[in-house]
Amino acid sequence: MIHDAQLDYYGKKLATCSSDRTIKIYDVLENSNRCTAELGGHSGPVWEVAWAHPKFGVLLASCSYDKQVIIHREASPGNWQQIYVYQDMTSSVNSVAWAPHEYGLVLACCSSDGKVAVLSHNLDDTWSVAVIEDSRQGVNAVTWAPYMSLGSQLEGGKCAKRLATAGCDNDVRVWVLDDSSMGASAPDAAAQAKWVEETRLRGHSGWVRDVSWAPGIGLPCNTLASCSDDGTVKIWTQDEPKGKWKETALPGFDNPVWRVSWSVTGNVLAVSSGDNSVTLWKETLDRNWKQVSNVFDAQAMQQPQQPVYSQQPQIQAQAQAQAQAQAQAQAQAQAPQQPVYTQPQPHQGFQPQQQQNFQQYQQGY
Questions:
Q1: Torsion 52-56-58-64 (CA) sign
Q2: 141: buried, middle or exposed (CB in 10 Å: 19+, 13-18, 0-12)?
Q3: What is the pLDDT of residues 24-48, one digit of tens each?
């Protein structure tokens, strides 16, 4: 079973991960896809993969049920190496997400043990780790706020790092890094960083399965989407720094909702639910959310098809013809075979009227 699929920054490479403990890398071509590598290293199902920004090279992070986070690098075309393995989680690692590239090479990962680890790459090619104590019941997903998002601006042109998590306690938490806790000259400054819970969003009645921060598109607001086992999707908006988050619910789903994902422009939300459907949603001018498409509907539009009302009689006729043919074949197979019929010749002793009747019979009259 494939658990995640992610395109790289340019949309030229596709990474997939699955229950067979492997990660496959594909080159996305115009008319086909070609598998160029299969990455190992995990000893359990691989839940998620995430591409780093190309300014750092071709890097891919993966997380697994085996409690590990692995960072892979493509040293040469088709040749991948593991450059870092994080193994300090005590339970399944459920999600990985790279921070905006303006912060440097920084990766967040969350685990069922209730912790979030922030891995930061140092100039000496080592990694520093800062741990956030999140929900004791476990964390399912993590997402970063866009660079220079509302409320993250600091004095001196700096920008505060912020992230959000989806917890098994039904809550969404927003965390902010307290820069005052970091030593300016300390080599492990990132490890000394203190993350502070900025706010907690409550509105779900089941595990929050995913959370996604909308990309910054110049609007003076923060927008989060979250989904839950309770069959709900919530849109959270903040219109002023440190202001209250407003909650908007999408029309209810009949099944648990597993994933939410924003478009690059941040104005379309994709929702994946337990009925194997993916729907697309967009905000209207009156700030309500409306379903604009279904992924399967979009695929169907690419292939011209006859209307349903014209297809239905054809389908029924084909089914009836197949049923009749099967019935005839079964009847012929079960019927006792008859001797070969030879058409009798008219008897010489027939009377004229009998002869005429017999000839008409032969002609199928």
A1: negative
A2: buried
A3: 999 998 888 899 999 999 999 999 9
Residues contacting residue 13 through CB under 8 Å, at least 6 positions apart: 7, 25, 26, 27, 28, 51, 58
Q: Rounded CA gap, 201 and 174, in Å?
A: 8
pLDDT digits 0-9 by tens, 169-212: 999 999 999 876 555 445 566 666 799 999 999 999 999 999 99
Chain position carrying tokens 């590598």: 37
Handedness of CA 192, 193, 196, 201 (dihedral sign): negative
Which whole-number Å values give the CA distances from 237 to 44, 207, 214, in the listed order?
Answer: 37, 20, 10
pLDDT tens digits, 334-360: 555 544 444 444 444 444 454 455 455
Residue 131 identity (one-letter amino acid): V
Taking the C-alpha atoms of residue 261 and residue 224, their distance in angstroms, rounded to an integer, is: 10
* Angle of CA points 156, 164, 45, to nearest 5°: 130
Other beta carbons less than 10 A from residue 201's beta carbon: 19
Q: Output the CA angle 122-139-147, nearest 5 degrees.
A: 45
The CA distance from 231 to 234, in Å, is 10
> Residue 56 in contact with residue 72, Cβ under 8 Å?
no
